[in-house]
Amino acid sequence: MKSITEILGGCQMVFGISYDIQEIFEGYVTNEHRTFIQMLQVIEEFLPACDRPGSLLGRKSYDEMAMIRSCLAKQFFNIATVTSLRNRLLSDPSLRQICGFTVVPSEATFSRRYAWYAQEKLMEKALGPLVSSYLEGRIVGHVSRDSTAIEAREKATNTKKEVKPKGKRGRPKKGSEPRDKKQSVLENQLAQSAEQAIGELNTLCSWGCKRNSQGNNNYWKGYKLHLDVTDSGIPVSAIVTGADVQ
Fold first, then answer.
1. Is residue 91 part of a domain?
2. Quick one: pLDDT at residue 128?
């Protein structure tokens, strides 16, 4: 399948320089659709080749690029479940055409393919070349760091700390061995590499709490996406952890 840039470029040659993309779509193209198309034009250039093992038996598999676009659409349009995504594709001809589907796959097909993308870390592989292309040779003077909640329906893991027996309060007796003071996570990270520190973070589904802009605490079950973003809006690093990681 051609990329979005190749498709729109070909249409521009047919309809002329001043054509509107609405002319090539069956349904109405909203501003959200147009923004999503612009995002695809940037991301698709840096997506790695998807050599997913297929089967010689059965029906022909769905186009890989169409499945990737639907995965990006699920996040862009903030669609919570695969069922809601499939219903949106069935009812939204413009989004279905942007993704490249003539027949919408089943929920099980979406789930299996998305699980494979997560296992292969497809988006992480695309982030590195994208950042290098836009920021190579430039000095990033300021980075904004924040996290966002990712809700999940799976069972949260129990992350309660082990309760250690308390000793007697006060100064230890003369001649007794001093108690070993356990270092905090931040103190340990000072002597670790970035890979070691990230490897020790909790990546399991858990309960999280975050204060919103109104000063109220929001609780959710799932994960947390941590991002470092430049002033121009380009993410330079991203990591997904359990919701309880600060």
1. yes
2. 84
Q: Based on the domain organization, do 24 and 86 belong to the same domain?
A: yes
Distance CA 176, CA 173 (A): 6
Q: What is the pLDDT of residue 166?
A: 64
Is residue 233 in some structural domain? yes
Across 221-231, average pLDDT:
88
- Do residues 96 and 85 make contact, with C-beta atoms less than 8 angstroms apart? no
Burial 5-14 (b: 16+ CB within 10 A, else e): eebbeeeeee
Chain-wide mean pLDDT for the chain? 82
95 to each of 62, 63, 99, 128, how far by Cα in Å? 16, 16, 6, 27
